[in-house]
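Example protein
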Amino acid sequence: MVSIIFYLVRKRRLREEYALFWIGCGILMLGVIWFYQGLLFVSSLIGSVTPTTTLFLFGFIFVLLLCLKISVSLSQLKTQIKILAQEVALLTTYKDEHHPPEPGDSEKPCNKLTP
């Protein structure tokens, strides 16, 4: 798992902040495998009948927290995109008002922004 994470970071498909998170998850999984008695102890603390149920419970909580983190990041990106789109619109309006197109220029101002 760690080698896959390093490969994804090297290819720039995974950011470093998420890489540390996934490496931590891999280390935690190895810890559960090596210290099975600890899993049995936690299972008895929460009243679980089997250690498998405890693993599913913690896995479910992990996925919920991961979804929450991604939702927060997505909300922040949506706000940043909105602000950037507004700034581009203002700059385009300013440019059109203060620097009219030259007579030989037949392109529309909006077409200049798209590749």
About this structure: Residues 51-98 form the longest helix (48 residues). Residues 51-97 form one domain. The chain has five helices and no strands. The radius of gyration is 25 Å.
